[in-house]
Amino acid sequence: MRIASMCGSLGVGSTNRAALRVAVEHLQSTGRTSNVTDIALTEVPMFDPARVEDPPPEVAERRSVLEHADGLLLAAPEYAGGLAGGMKNALDWLVGSGSIYHRPVAVLSAGTTGGGFALEQLVRTLSWQGALVIDSLGISAPNTKSGPAGFKDAETITTIQRWAERLVDAVSMTPLQLLKRVTDVVTPFGIDPSRFGDLR
Ligand SMILES: Cc1cc2nc3c(=O)[nH]c(=O)nc-3n(C[C@H](O)[C@H](O)[C@H](O)COP(=O)(O)O)c2cc1C
Question: Of 35, 107, 140, 146, which one has the greatest count of Cβ atoms within 10 A?
Fold first, then answer.
């Protein structure tokens, strides 16, 4: 099983990055998957609609990793009441590419208030591209639950580990199970799951 991860924060001591580390280390140490590729977003240029068909190499490489992944772990902060721009920009480059179409995705936002607005925008923009959001996790006040070495709060660590496990579980689900799971997650965000069509 191949998993890809993307982090929408460049912050020193980023708690979103720390949460992804917890998730990936857990999947690897429990033998759920050893194949996790982190996709750095720093080199992704600003989205240019004229280059959707012929993207810059930085974008083409990232699309290729995503197309070969069975599932995605995404973590991004909320800035000024919305999804971190670097993550939105990276996702805009995927529109029309089909790179994440029908791909299970688990999303997370660690931030002061729990990232509710960031998660809402993540779930919507991913669903608009046909990605299947199978879990959404907000972590509020992450700095009180972590230190320089990462998360230290046992309950938060377990919650992140379960979040990662749900992605791996979703990759092995039947189309019917997957559709039910996605429906449960996206419906509260006002998204009609019929947009995903036939998952088979
Ligand atoms: C410019 C800026 C805007 C922010 N806006 C929000 C916000 O609207 N809502 C919120 O909950 N936290 C907000 N925060 C706090 C971040 O969510 C918090 O610092 C988070 O830990 C950043 O993610 P990171 O630890 O992965 O770098 C903001 C932080 C910055 C620097």
Answer: 107
**Which protein residue has the closest C-alpha to ligand 1 atom 12?**
112
Distance 14 CA to ligand 1 centre (A): 10
Among 10, 112, 120, 151, the mutation site with the greatest number of ligand 1 atoms within 8 A of its Cβ is 112
Rounded Cα distance between 38 and 22, Å, is: 13
Ligand 1 touching residue 15 (CB < 6 A): yes
**Sequence-ordered list of residues with C-beta below 8 angstroms from that of 158, at least 6 positions apart, any chain:** none
Tell me the CA–centroid distance for residue 193 and ligand 1, in Å: 30
Residue located nearest, by CA, to atom 18 of ligand 1:
111
Nearest to 139 by CA among 167, 105, 108: 108
Beta strands in 26-122 (DSSP E): 35-39, 71-75, 78-79, 82-83, 104-111
- Torsion from C-alpha of 28, 170, 129, 195, nearest 10 degrees: -170
Point out the ligand 1 atom lying closest to the alpha carbon of residue 18.
26
Model pTM?
0.97
Q: pLDDT 10s digit of each residue in the chain, 200 long? A: 999 999 999 999 999 999 999 999 999 999 999 899 999 999 999 999 999 999 999 999 999 999 999 999 999 999 999 999 999 999 999 999 999 999 999 999 999 999 999 999 999 999 999 999 999 999 999 999 999 999 999 999 999 999 999 999 999 999 999 999 999 999 999 999 999 998 87
